[in-house]
């Protein structure tokens, strides 16, 4: 019951992720060509999902128990994205991203 009232609980994170999936066609498109895996450093996984109408999101995950620092992703360089979980914009001028252990970004491509 405590997770229902805690906005930062795992339960509420899953609720947000389900709502994002339902609201974004790029996550509902199951065509094989709708997903592109991006080249990353070890233990960092990234992919881009694109809907038939061109809407796209980028998912970046750190699969390690250690912080991933200064991971370069060409797809990020010089671009601004919207973080899907909180609606805040984030820019990656040099294309580098740092992720906490087990951390992730769920980004809307502008």
Low-confidence stretches: none
Described by the principal axes of the CA atoms, the overall outline is globular
Helix content: 10-25%
Hey, roughly how much beta strand do the residues contain? 35-45%
Largest sheet, strands/sense/barrel:
6 strands, antiparallel
Question: Radius of gyration from the CA trace?
Answer: 14 Å
- Could you state the oligomeric state of the chains shown? single chain
By DSSP (H or I, 4+ residues per run), the number of helices equals 2
What is the gist of this entry?
The chain is built from 2 helices and 8 strands; from the N terminus they run H-H-E-E-E-E-E-E-E-E. It has 110 residues and is α+β, with helices and mostly antiparallel strands. It has a 6-stranded antiparallel β-sheet, with no helix packed on it. It has a two-stranded antiparallel sheet with strand order 4-7.
Features:
110 residues; alpha+beta; six-stranded antiparallel beta sheet; two-stranded antiparallel ribbon; 2 helices; 8 strands; 16% helix; globular
